[in-house]
Amino acid sequence: MSLREVGPGKPYATIQAALDNLFLIVGAVAFTETHTIRVYTDTYLETATPNTLLNPTATFRLIIEAATGNVPVIDGQNIRNDGIDIDAINYVDVSGFTVKNCLQDCIWCYRSAELKIFNNDVSYSLESGLTCYTCINSEFYNNICHHITGTGYGIYIRNASTGAKIYNNTCYSNSTNGIFAGDNNINVYNNTCYLNSNGIRTGGANINLYGNICYSNSYGLWMYSSNNINIYGNKLYLNTTGMMFSSAALGGKIYNNLVYNNSGDGIYIPTSPLTKIYNNTVYLNGGYGIYLLSTAINCEVKNNIVLNYSSTCIRIDVSSQPGVVCNYNDFYCENAAASVGNWGATGYKTLALWQAASGQDANSISLRAIFVSVNGASVINAAITDYSPCVGIGTNLSAIFTNDFNGAIRTDPWDMGAYIKSAVYIPIIQNQILSNYAPTQDQNITAQCNVLGTPDHVIVKINGKPFKLFLSSGNLYTASIKAYLIGECIAQTAYFMATNFWGGSDEIAPATITIPAMTSYNINLIELAIINCLNTITDFKSVLQNEPKQIPALPAATLYYDGFTQSQTEAFSFTITHKWILRIYVKLHDAEDAQIQIKDLIGKVLAVLKQNLDFNQTVLFGFSDSGSVVVLMDRDAPVMIAELNLTGLLEVD
User: Fold this and answer.
1) CATH of span 428-515
2) pTM to 2 decimals?
3) Using one digit for the tens of pLDDT, what is the confidence trace for 375-392?
């Protein structure tokens, strides 16, 4: 490989100088090795143009690249047409550049073949970021194309550029199209387009358009005069219209797409006969879910889930009714005032009325699809759960396609929508430890799910309170629920569910357990927990749960129960405060020594209580708010005593 380096301190100050030297040395002879122009960080005020007589080959290419870790900028200064101009030369790679401020195109490719344009950031030109004009079998990938004004294409493929591949690009804030694929036999996939006038627009035949994400555009996808085009696995949301297939385009297949939360129509088909609309999930769009308009005749609509709120699920105008086949769909309206379908201009609120008027959808349903994780406008996972009404009632279309949105193989009987059913993690309860329940006794809960490995948690609801059970191993989920959090005085039922995997508040009522009523508040258990905390202080010779006539050894600590208060905070909810006097005893041989010792022990007690604010989980919150020090001048054994007021708070529903 031959290498020419460009940049400050390198042999060549400009990219063009390196290209000119390459032609001076190699001429028009076919390359016998790969030639690389490697460019380092700087701003280059030029249009880099390889000589059209250079002769790279499929084996030995011309590479114009940014050096690793460098970001060279080519600035057109709004006076040059292009930043990089590849004209009539094949087998060229261009990568790693920031190109901006050009009067026409940041990177212009014309009359060339087998180009690879990748990892570039192009912006602020007046026509296109990347243009491929009469360039067959070229690839555009991993580029960022933004803020193209004027005619405003992020990526523009046109005029005999058959065989192009456009993938993994991000195109945003361009004045017309993020991507325009205007030729035949083009693959456009895994791109992200947002805040453009149109996300992706096509204008050729035999195009595959898949895996793209388009949001916040006017049209997410716009297929214009595009025949025999396959549109699948795309995610289209927050556009004005999800997708439009127009201008007498023939034979398009639209399947396995997720089209949701667009302000207008989800799938809009004007004047495009023979369009096949299969297994799409069309959710909560502001206009029609699917709209066949103006001679979109002989179309098929099968296996779709269309869930709208206030607008109509499907509309088929009179001019589009000839030859239409519509069946095995789920058309459901969240709002009873909305219509399942419009047959012509007339809307029909129920599926039965729609079927009678249209003669369509004999095997369709109108039931709420239960998704894995959909909550209003929030769509995290639009796969249907394994207990959705859309499972297994679609028609088999394996002669046309076999996968779902995620590439999973569909099996017979087919599910409706873009995804096959997803196994929902329904907990099966086992190994409960629920005997002798008291407010000072935590509950160890174990659930077994029906699928291994994921999710990361399931949820148990006890009397309306949700608690998470986390994955411990395999398909076992466990949690120790603190007694004071449960805090119920009556028998209750625990419902297990997995709301993090589908929308709403669906609970699995059959999988229940009953927690017995509380038997007592068991103050002794709370006191034992306090004593266990104090026993960690090694200075104490004895720690007692009472005030004995004679303390066996000093220093010592004792607890004296000093009563309780109870208040109602809201309906059926009480706060109970238990009070103790905690006494610390030290020998009084010397007043100074005794004071030092008593202060040291007070500090240690407060530190231990601070580390155990819930008294080893027996109360909601425990604290000592005040204290005093006194001297007891017993003739035989004088002592200094610290009295701390100790409080434990319980909350009971």
Assistant:
1) 2.60.40
2) 0.71
3) 777 888 899 987 789 999
